[in-house]
Prior knowledge:
The chain is of the alpha+beta class. It has 2 domains: 1-35; 37-173, Glutaredoxin, CATH 3.40.30.10. The chain contains 5 helices and 8 strands, in the order H-E-E-E-E-H-E-H-E-H-E-E-H. It has helices spanning 7-34, 72-88, 105-115, 128-132, 161-173; strands spanning 37-38, 43-46, 51-53, 62-67, 94-99, 120-123, 141-145, 150-156. Strand 7 (141-145) and strand 8 form a beta hairpin. The N and C termini lie far apart (69 Å).
Amino acid sequence: MTTPASSPTRSWAKPAFIGAAVLAIAGIGFATFGKQQQAPDVTFISIDGQKISSQDLRGKVVMVNFWATSCTTCVKEMPQMVETYNKFKGQGLEFVAVAMNYDRPDYVLNYTQAKQLPFKVALDSSGDLAKQFGDVNMTPTTFVIDKDGKILKRYLGEPDFGQLHTLLHKSLSTT
């Protein structure tokens, strides 16, 4: 049983403690969010059977785009992805378009040839690449990775291409 004199102290102490806990958790979350995450060490298998390891891509700015031929947003954004690649490839941009595991390889091959995609196109037949990139299940999902292999930005859905170009320009111009 509590006395009336102690009730106000206890009722004040609980919100203060909860408030302090929320601030501490928020601070941890902010500190974690601010850190750049290392891109996973993976090997992409292109539709022509070429192996492309993430280690081979170090020292270059890389875009990894998870997509599917059945994804209307992916198909809609693909011409702008091609335009982005063509604009920055001369400055050293690498691009790997990763077809999701549910996408039929013959559809991916047909789309790639019909649209004359100028960058590397890989198949994620087992879904392992999507898992290693943080359980990607929404398409399109695009990662921009810096020269040191750190993820600079993850775009869910179609990116703002103006902002993407600014990020690529900045990333490619750093030594």
